[in-house]
Amino acid sequence: MLGKSFFITTPIYYVTAAPHIGSAYTTTAADVLTRWHRQRGEMAYMLTGTDEHGQKVLRSAEKNGKSPQQFVDDLVRDEWKPAWDLLDITPDRFIRTTDPDHVAQVQEFWQRLYDAGFVYEGQYTGLYCVDCEEFKQEADLTEDGLCLIHERPVEEISEKNYFFKLSEFGDRLLALYDEQPDFVGPSAARNEIRNYVEAGLQDLSISRSTFDWGIQVPWDHSQVLYVWIDALLNYTSAVGVYDDPEKFAKFWPPVHLMSRDILRFHSVIWPAMLMAAGLPVPQRVFAHGYLLVGGKKMAKSNATAIHPREITDTFGVDAYRYYFMKTIAFGSDASFSWEHISAVYADELANNLGNLASRVAAMVGKYHGGILAEPGALGEAEDALAESLRKTVEVADDAMERLAIHEAITATHDLVTRVNGYITEQQPWKVAKDESADAQSRLATILYACAEVLRAVAVLHNAVMPQASAKLWASLGADRSIGALDDQPLTSAGKWGQLPAGTTVTKGDVLFPRIEESAS
Ligand code: MSP
After folding, report:
1. What whole-number percentage of the chain has pLDDT above 90?
2. How far is 404 from 257, CA to CA, in rounded Å?
3. I want to staple 9 with a disulfide (CB 3.0 to 4.6 A). Which of 47, 309, 511, 515 is the partner?
4. How far is CA 212 from CA 55, 57, 58, 222, 409, in A?
């Protein structure tokens, strides 16, 4: 069970180019989970940011004829922060590894480990992939000696470095994977990591001496810390491990999201670092799937990288968030397709949800002058709908807890489908024609039932589609009759009868306008 606070992180992205839908995928997921937990009344904290040091960023800056600091400042200001604003992603902190509070806490961390004897000086001779910012073994290379991930040549380095005694942590890591079975997820990834650790760990080189774009090793200013052991510490710096112990105690441990490219760093090196420092390990490390282009992981260095704006310009931000979060099983790979998003937009958003909202508002307008009438006794069909609603909240909440974001959204979508089916069966337009008191009471019940489920749909979709949910909430008059949407406790959203009769229902804005042009 999650406690009263919820702390979720994305990787901090290398600032070598603008974000694309791959980096946006993790960040959107973190935002959706954060909003969900907040709607549950928890203290939620979302962290994202940028990884700015190291050779990869340095070389990109050089290629662009800028100093590394200028280069990252420009990209963060012009590309990274605006992309998250565009997507309604509202992190509690956007951390940059050049932030002074991060730099100070990274130095303190490594000084402590050095003082405690976990760090020693040695000679590193081996292979390095700058694109991965990772030391490579023969097994990590193609037959031609290229990096398996980037299919680019690796570099041979030989330098005096400091080493972290990672090899001493194998047994403790294996015990962690056994005692905390969902520490690494999904389960296939967990087995891979377990096997990797079981095969034996080598000590890790944690400093570089041939360039200076990094955080200085605190006890030896001729070297900078290896970019990964600087970057991983963003998670502890952001919540003040050494400069705000209260905040740290409130939020730690986190749930870390990423894709499997960097799962080893997060589930092997990172917990070992924390163990050495005497800090609690994360709650969970979860690798979702890759967004693929032409069967390969979309990457910033890839010419086919798609910027989120290309999609939101046509479909809007809510549909963007809904599409990626609902149609891709969280944990599986997927390819983006314009045809698919067009179909999902038309079928699930414009037709299923958008039409339902406008039909219900139109009927309340036409038959009851826009005032939600007092319902009569619930019949079998309403009881079934109320039960369906109760179940949906339960199922969706359980799915979000398991990080099965797609299942949670699917549950809400299915509920919307059920209401549409209910309307088709009940035929309120026919009932309206009968002026008898019984029929009129029945009509009030039907319209009330629809509006009441839509009330809950707004709460359930609020984490995924904040703009459309706010519009739906306003059109139900719920702002005035119940209160702010963000304040509605998710856990009791399934309770029937919260929308009071007498509420003014208005047609409001169309939730998902039709898209005339083919998007492809
Ligand atoms: N800077 C490191 C992370 C340090 S975290 C302490 C890094 N940066 S990155 O820019 O390469 O980001 C990698 C992450 O971006 C992936 O783990 C994933 O979260 C996200 N994605 C990048 N491309 C992606 C896809 N094509 N598909 C899905 N996620 C993608 O590694």
Report:
1. 91
2. 13
3. 47
4. 9, 12, 9, 8, 47
DSSP result, 61-97: HHHTTS-HHHHHHHHIIIIIHHHHHHTT---SEEEET
Domains and CATH numbers, the chain: 338-492 (1.10.730.10)
DSSP string, 468-479: HHHHHHHHTTHH
Question: Is the distance from the beta carbon of residue 13 to the nearest atom of ligand 1 less than 6 Å?
Answer: yes
Q: Which of 20, 26, 177 is nearest to 91 (CA)?
A: 26
- Is 56 annotated for ligand binding? no
Find where tokens 């807890």 sit.
Answer: 401
pTM over 0.90: yes
pLDDT tens for 407-434 read: 999 999 999 999 999 999 999 999 999 9
> In the numeric block, which tokens belong to residue 309?
């704006």
Strand partners, 128: 135, 155
Q: Which of 444, 472, 471, 442 is nearest to 456 (CA)?
A: 472
- Token output for 189: 């990834």
Q: Give me 369's structure tokens.
A: 């002058």
CA distance 73 to 238: 19
Whether pLDDT at 382 is above 50: yes
Kindly give the distance from the C-alpha atom of residue 365 to the centroid of ligand 1, in angstroms, as a whole number. 49
H helices of 149-282, where? 170-179, 187-198, 227-231, 234-238, 245-251, 263-264, 270-276
Distance between CA atoms of residues 32 and 325, nearest Å = 9
Query: Considering only CA atoms, which of 284, 329, 333, 288 is closest in space to residue 184?
Result: 284
> pLDDT digits over 458-508, tens only?
999 999 999 999 999 999 999 999 999 999 999 999 999 999 999 999 998
Determine contact, residues 275/169, Cβ cutoff 8 Å: yes
What residues form DSSP beta bridges with 46? 8
Residue-wise DSSP of 5-68: EEEEEEEEEE-SS---HHHHHHHHHHHHHHHHHHHTT-EEEEEEEEE--SHHHHHHHHHTTS-H
How far apart, in whole angstroms, are the C-alpha atoms of residue 447 and residue 436? 17
The response to whether 129 counts as a known ligand-binding position is yes
| Residue 304 reports pLDDT greater than 80 | no
User: Which of 147, 258, 266, 403 for a ligand 1 pocket mutation test, highest count of atoms within 8 Å of Cβ?
Assistant: 258
290 lines ligand 1 (CB under 6 A): yes
Residue 63 annotated in ligand binding? no
Q: Which tokens go with 328?
A: 């891709």
